[in-house]
Amino acid sequence: MAKVQVITDSTADIPKDLVKELGISVVPLKVHLASESYLDGVNISSSEFYSRLKEIDQMPTTSQPSPSDFVEAYREAMENGSTEILSIHLSSAFSGTYQSATLAKSMVEGEINVTVLDSKTASYAIGTIVVAAAQAAQEGKSMDECVAVARRVMESKEVYFLVDTLDYLQKGGRIGKASAVVGSLLNIKPILSINNDGEVYAVEKVRGKNKATARIFNILKEKMPEGLEKAAVMYTDNREEAEKWADRLRETFGFEDVQFTHIGPVIGAHTGPGTIAVVAVPVQP
Q1: Which residues 6+ apart lie within 8 Å of 201 measured at CB?
Q2: Does the pLDDT at position 174 exceed 60?
Q3: Alpha helices (H) along 139-277
Q4: What is the enclosing helix (H) or strand (E) of 44?
Q5: Pick from 267, 87, 121: which is nearest to 198 by CA?
Q6: Within a 10 A sphere around the Cβ of 98, how many other Cβ atoms?
Q7: Which residues, 6+ apart, have CB-to-CB distance to 148 below 8 Å?
Q8: For 194-209, how does the pLDDT look when each residue is reduced to its tens digit (9 = 90+)?
Q9: Are 89 and 125 in contact (CB under 8 A)?
Q10: How far apart are CA 88 and CA 178, in angstroms?
């Protein structure tokens, strides 16, 4: 096992094969659907979640891991031979997960060396950061080097997404009710992103999904004229649409190594079915 163990939470939406390959430890959040509670990605899959979501009327809710959940993960990593832990988590603007991890760090102080990072983002935009850090750890890089890799990806990546309806973001307090109503009435598709404070905001408002999609790839080309180092498409129940977005990445950048990943139940509970997103990291100068 790598000297530095990278730990994240389930909202990073990292494909299970990558989790296994890179030895990443994942602490699950909970999603509450109707009268049932599930561990994100453990006893409910993304496919099951979106299928169930269409069958119920009430909005799902979510809850963060407890500090003790993180303490358990930190101690397990040390028992397995790691000497330092890099813990990277969902934006603190969305959840108390980062605060739980920070409190857990204080609970094991003097026993385990833990560095906690607020990713200030969500879904595989976190996953891209975590995977890069885990690859560095697997190469035997030091904690400082792994943190530097994580911060470079955090600062250089771009993430954009579209939702089918603004209702989920509005009811979760992520976007104002007036914006949700106007968007629905006028077929306005806001191109959404996450700012440096880790909050959702509208980059531009475009009439119609096709135009909004085309504009996303134009924005990426404007911001990353030298090309891509990494890119991924995140989807909910719309893999066919995700394939089309991947094709656009290939056409726009000549970039073939596109990662696909499901937007998991916890993030999906706040964005709804039909959500699709892209995260890209530019070629480093």
Answers
A1: 192, 193, 194, 195
A2: no
A3: 143-156, 167-171, 177-186, 209-223, 239-253, 265-271
A4: none
A5: 121
A6: 24
A7: none
A8: 999 998 888 998 989 9
A9: no
A10: 34
| pLDDT tens for each residue of 119-166 | 999 999 999 999 999 999 999 999 999 999 999 999 999 999 999 888
Give the pLDDT confidence of 227-259 residue by residue, as tens digits.
Answer: 999 999 999 999 999 999 999 999 999 999 999
Locus of tokens 């607020």: 118
Residues in the chain: 285
Q: Give the domains, in start order, of the chain with CATH numbers.
A: 4-28+65-155 (3.40.50.10170), 158-282 (3.30.1180.10)
Type and span of the H or E element at 161:
strand 158-162
Tell me the one-letter amino acid at 135: Q
The answer, yes or no, to whether residue 178 has pLDDT greater than 60, is: no
Rounded to the nearest 10°, the torsion over CA 140, 142, 146, 152 is -120
Residue with tokens 């964005």: 271
